[in-house]
From TrEMBL:
PROSITE patterns: ABC_TRANSPORTER_1 (PS00211), ABC_TRANSPORTER_2 (PS50893). SMART domains: AAA. This is ATP-binding cassette domain-containing protein. One of its GO terms (molecular function) is ATP binding. The keyword Endoplasmic reticulum does not apply. Keywords: ATP-binding, Nucleotide-binding, Transport. It holds the Pfam family ABC_tran. Residues 1-233 form the ABC transporter domain. It comes from the Bacteria.
């Protein structure tokens, strides 16, 4: 289990971007919602170890210092997929994923063989020998997920993975998520509620750097009985984030 209790985080001294945000990941999908600027990317970056923060952090019951120099086991257990995946210039998809595995501490041989299984898991085995920078936007997101799977991260932090994808690529990505979250925890930030919230999902909602909701998808929509599932999700969201 990954448990983070962010008492306070700000990019600059005196500023506060996140306050009293407690998150625990223990398997399955947790969907992180919130309007632009709510702090979703910031929270994922904080969990990924890009920034230190004031608060506590525990991995599998053991306390980890929530500063930037987190232990290797933390860095191996937690994988972060930023909004934009940048391919290493000149490398093939397989080399790109192998390189990430090597950076995360695998031997070159293990990294190369695991890269192929990770690419297969995200449906990109046919692109293994293509230059990574030639992949489409959706394939690039899946390449990013392969980079997280190659070192067997158990906690995946995915920042708006479906943004800008066409419906077919989005469905592929959702299928990849369903497959990986059977054995891992995925925290996914998104504006795409209809595509990513499923009955078994947990929903977290951030607004102005504070957690306004943390519960099951059913609890999220329980006061909104009418309309399609997408309309109920939208109504629930609007009740936490009123229009300005
Ligand atoms: N590197 C940075 N330095 C200073 N402030 C930042 C930095 N990155 C983000 N912020 C600020 O932190 C706040 C939260 O931003 P963040 O990107 O986490 O929001 P978000 O919920 O991910 O938004 P979006 O849905 O638009 O991606 C915003 O006010 C933003 O301007």
């Amino acid at each position: 289990m990954l448990e983070a209790d962010v008492k306070r985080f700000g990019y600059r001294r005196g500023e506060c971007q996140l306050a009293e945000v407690a998150v625990s990941l223990a398997g399955g999908r947790a969907v992180l919602l919130g309007p632009n600027g709510a702090g979703k990317t910031t929270l994922l970056r904080v969990l990924a170890g890009v920034h230190g923060y004031d608060g506590t952090l525990r991995l599998d019951g053991e306390t980890v210092r929530p500063n930037r120099s987190r232990p290797r086991r933390y860095r191996a257990a937690v994988g972060w997929l930023p909004q934009h995946v940048t391919p290493f210039p000149g490398l093939t998809a397989r080399e790109h994923v192998s390189y990430i595995g090597w950076l995360k501490g695998l031997t070159p041989r293990a990294a190369a063989s695991r890269a192929l299984s990770a690419l297969t898991q995200v449906g990109l085995e046919g692109k293994a020998n293509e230059r990574a920078e030639r992949l489409s936007g959706g394939q690039m997101r899946r390449l990013g997920i392969a980079g997280v799977l190659v070192h067997d991260a158990r906690y995946l932090l995915l920042d708006e993975p479906t943004a800008g994808l066409d419906p077919r690529e989005r469905d592929r990505l959702v299928a990849v998520l369903r497959d990986i979250e059977r054995t891992r925890s995925v925290l996914v930030s998104t504006h795409d509620t209809a595509a990513l919230i499923e009955p078994s999902s947990r929903v977290l909602l951030l607004h102005d750097g504070r957690l306004r909701f943390d519960g099951t998808a059913d609890q999220f929509t329980e006061r909104h009985h009418h309309g399609t599932p997408a309309a109920r999700l939208q109504a629930a969201y609007s009740s936490f984030v009123p229009e300005e």
